[in-house]
Amino acid sequence: MYAKALAPEYQGSLSSLSVNSSLTDVLAEGTDRLRAAEQAGSQREVARSGLAVAEAHRRLGHVEEADRAWKASYRAARSAGDVGAMAWAVWSGGTLARQRGSLALARRLLALAAELGKRGDDVVARGYSLAGLAETGRIQGDYEAVHTLHEQLLAEARKRGEARHTVWALEGIAQIHRNTGSYDTAFAMFEEAAAIAAQADDQRGRAWALRGMADIVSLRDKDVDRALALLSEAELACRRMKLTSALAYNLKMRGNVLFRAGRYVPAREYYETALAEFRAMSEPRGTALSRLGLAKTLARLGQDPEVTAAELDDLRGELDRIGLRHAREMVDAAYEELGISRTGAHRAPAIPGARKAPEAVAAR
């Protein structure tokens, strides 16, 4: 049995905010409390309010504002000698770095945040920071390196009865199983995550779990209508809470579902919409994955193979730069799937049933 999900990143005078609060409301209230704390000269409260402001900006896709906010929160926490608040600020910065595709920086910041959490005796900050490190490795495809850490974090979250972290860990492990072809196991874990999130009223966690379920339903069961229905349910929460990044990934998954079903015209529309959303929030990973889906779709709609090859070549280089080796395997698989060489020369289509690299994961 899990208690109602909490949002530990909303601290100090903002601790009454719900995990399901609209991000625009969080930003407005956080900004008001931050100004009041600055006027009162309370550096501790400046740090805590600033963290909520940083996280609201990050999740809304305001990356420059988020960058300024987490750094200001850290400076205030350091001035107040609040090591726990320092840990949370650096965690926010590390999470932002991952969102922006700066994975090496993300690892450094999240490792520092975990150390600060330990020094400040903030178990939750340390746990969130270790979770961030695990997620960073997972989205890069380093499954062997982070699977054990995911399992450890899941066990700790279950022991504490911490619903939100349990849901996160279940979804992370499920994504690893999905990407390595264990669809039944992946679906069961996504389904459990969705159930726990519903029980704990964690709408964000449930939206991500539903997206994972839709992916499996599309891949394993070829059930397009059910997959789209799951995505529609998740979309409602994303729009209600103004979850900009989660909504963009939802739209991209709609493109995936429709592409797999051979519905290339509507798939193109969803990929194009998702691509615009990711570009607007300067999210390179989502941008690259949407570009890949769009390139494959346009190829199926008759685009010149030379144009497709040039796009895939550029994407491969971009994914190498970001460090997403797993996603790069998807590009390599696309050459084979579309019968296109890296020089753009057309060749025979791939043999039906041949093994293809799995699709990349989504990050929150």
UniProtKB/TrEMBL annotation:
Entry's localization field: Cytoplasm
Keywords: Cytoplasm, Repeat, TPR repeat
SUPFAM superfamilies: TPR-like (SSF48452)
Principal location: cytoplasm
Pfam assignment, any one: TPR_12
Keyword match Cytoplasm: yes
Assigned protein family: Belongs to the Rap family.
Name of the protein this chain belongs to: Tetratricopeptide repeat protein
Species lineage: Bacteria, Bacillati, Actinomycetota, Actinomycetes, Kitasatosporales
